[in-house]
Design a protein that fits this description.
- This protein has 8 helices and 9 strands.
- It has 247 residues and is of the alpha/beta class.
- It has a single domain (10-241), classed as Spore Coat Polysaccharide Biosynthesis Protein SpsA, Chain A (Alpha-Beta Complex).
- Helix 2 links the parallel strand 2 and strand 3.
- The longest helix is centred in the last third of the chain and has 20 residues, at 222-241.
Length: 247
């Protein structure tokens, strides 16, 4: 029986840094998903933040399985640069649906068919949510939970967000949306990027998708926190002036 997504031109972009330990299991799950869908490509973005042999593992996989493509991005200075590098590449290769996710099984590749379904039902954006029915956040220290829920709370209070989860990095977009994101100069250079993107797309047709998230590390750098405060303050000011941008 032909899979309904076998003709869909979609791609996933996945920043990869120090992923050697979880690489075999992550790839095994991804290959099962790709096999079941009968379509799709995965772009791995690797830069100097990776200190182990992740790049070599990705390049070896690319030689063995052409559905995986390694993008070496030495110019990247932040995770946002890595995301945008992946978006540009998938966009330039004609992908109609582009899904962004984390590596290391923080995000489960088995959720991708659900994203494709919602994005094939009239939604322009599909935002992964840990805090709606069917979603979860497991194996995560209290610091990570606090930052995730705290960021969502601030977005709801100060930016008027209606989302249950404004900080998740598992999300999917139609091609037109990605083109608009690439043409806009994002302010964030760190984790607040996820919230910024969702705020900018608040007027588009979107849906929240329940996801399971695992984040064993509690660490979020001081620089990332300061970046979040700076960008949040910018959009609060724009909102108060009635000049808040949207895409």
């Amino acid at each position: 029986m032909l899979n309904i997504y076998s003709s869909v031109n979609w791609a996933a972009i996945v920043p990869m840094a120090n992923e050697a330990a979880d690489f075999p299991l992550f790839i095994a799950e991804f290959q099962k998903t790709l096999d079941s869908l009968g379509s799709g490509h995965v772009f791995f973005i690797v830069d100097h933040s990776s200190r182990d042999n992740t790049r070599e593992l990705c390049e070896k996989l690319e030689q063995e399985d052409g559905r995986f493509i390694t993008l070496w991005a030495p110019e990247s200075r932040s995770v946002v640069d890595a995301y945008l590098h992946g978006f540009r590449e998938a966009y330039s290769r004609g992908a109609d649906i582009i899904i962004e996710m984390d590596a290391g099984l923080s995000h489960d590749p088995r959720a991708i068919p659900m994203f494709l379904r919602f994005l094939s039902e009239g939604n322009e954006c599909a935002f992964g949510s840990r805090f709606i029915n069917g979603g979860s956040m497991v194996d995560s220290p209290w610091q990570r939970r606090f930052l995730s829920k705290g960021g969502t709370f601030l977005a709801r209070i100060f930016l008027g967000s209606k989302l249950s989860d404004a900080t998740s990095g598992f999300q999917g977009f139609h091609r037109e949306i990605v083109g608009q994101l690439l043409s806009y100069k994002l302010k964030s250079k760190a984790h607040f990027y996820q919230t910024e993107v969702r705020y900018l797309l608040r007027k588009r047709r979107y849906i929240e998708v329940p996801i399971h998230y695992r984040a064993p590390s509690p660490r979020v750098s001081k620089g990332a926190i300061m970046d979040s405060i700076r960008v949040l303050a910018f959009y609060i000011a724009q909102r108060l002036k009635g000049t808040a941008p949207s895409l």
